């Protein structure tokens, strides 16, 4: 995996930006991070609840990480498990805050101190610092993680504090020029 990582990092450096987005490292966000933090490794985080089995009332909530600088065929076969808990009910935001705070402390350590590697061929020591590029979750998990109201509640928009209203059976959020606080 080390050789794939080093090859992909070199490929990213050598690939000119033609404006097309084929991969995460073609995005403006990734390029901005690399501009500010040259040589940084980035990862994406996902968390979501999943049933233990079809007949079980228990579910598990993994924290999964993908290292963006790995080639996609390697990246998605080597998902890192950053945390896991099993529950018999939907977690409350207070619990999710505690659960994620442990992960966040470890993520800060990876960001500040990095991880030391020894290059297999050259013997050169390399320190890589890891930065979270994005968090991906569905509309059910997002409010639990954000400590917000569920997506179908009056203040359930994940991006603003607009008061929603019911239009038939659907919750609608008006477009506002200024975010109500």
TrEMBL record:
It comes from Temnothorax curvispinosus. It comes from the Eukaryota. The gene is LOC112464374. This is Uncharacterized protein LOC112464374. The lineage of its organism: Eukaryota, Metazoa, Ecdysozoa, Arthropoda, Hexapoda.
